[in-house]
Design goal:
395 residues; 7-stranded mixed sheet; 5-stranded antiparallel sheet; 22 strands; globular; disordered N terminus
Length: 395
Amino acid sequence: MIRRMIGVAMIASGLMATQSISVHGACCYFAAKDKDINQPGQKAFITFDAGRKEESFTVQPRFEGNAADFGMVIPIPSRPKLDEMPRDFFAELAVFTILEPMDMSKYKQLRQYMALAASGGVQDQAAMRRGSVRVLEAGVVGSLDYKIISAENADDLFAWLKGNNYSYGGDQATLDFYIQKKWLFVTMRIDPKQMKTRPDGAYEGQITPTRFTFQSERIIYPLKITQLSVKTNTEALFYIQSADKVDLPGAMTYQHSFVPMWLQALSYAIPEKVTPQEARWNANVKGLEKEFLQSAQADQAHSHEPATLEWAKKITSKDIDVLSGTTKYNREAPPDQVEKLKLLKGHVAQGQFITKIRKVFSKDEMTDDLVFVKARVNGMDDAIEYFSILPTSPP
């Protein structure tokens, strides 16, 4: 059983001028009145250097619709540097983070495991209004024209956007949320006519991924602004590369679902095959599974989905060799996708942890931005890796 996580890169966002468009991402919509715009999902690759106090996140717009043109508004804590990224970047991240085959020599009671697996596993540009808006920079990245702007109040920003032919479909309070934090805004515009046309005349396509690099004291992701374009919930997939394994804060932690799964998987392991690190972690979290399962069930009772850890690994020289093609890729994926793993070279860094987290956010969980934290449980730092299939891994 190989768990497949191959997919099309789909992070995006949207600031749209006239018609309904479905998009995804760390930003805010602008749309004509009475247009139904929804944001069903988002993906991001985030890197953080604590020593340099530098963060970057990469997003890739994907859209469909019949707007004459549209764009994005992305809030940023400090003035960013923009770079074009490989078009297939997220597709290759998905291939790179497929779980490896299970170590069949480590686990016993395989008949019980097979029965468990069979049953589904563990449940678990117009004239600018005069005012406080300032255009700090303008340029082109990939196929996108962008501007980095600042504003001192939401009224001025609203007027500037309207003066640039955008009709704001959200509330000004959300803009003011970022203005009060003295964040900047990146606006980006695209001509959909450059993209594929469907039989119904609508456009669909993906924009070249863009990386935003900026100064930050912590790993932060602008989640609140996406609340404007979400009906009830949105699914987010995060790849976070940093010195340590990370987690979502507080009650959003993935440990509610991961710890019970991990403990049950370890119960199948041959004792001699359990590493000292695993033994220490087992002692630290043993007995918490009931509490965590109850927390996950309580979340679901409030229409909140528990976060899940999908992959976590400290990148080694062998991993870098896999990207180069000098070490064999040991999972199931189309050969052409494996060949293109080299696109990740220079972005995936040896010695860094990559933590892959999936979370469905309800609208009431998006009242603030996300600040990722170092993974810890019961007072102990969590450095447990998860890159091979466990007996209890979801199918």
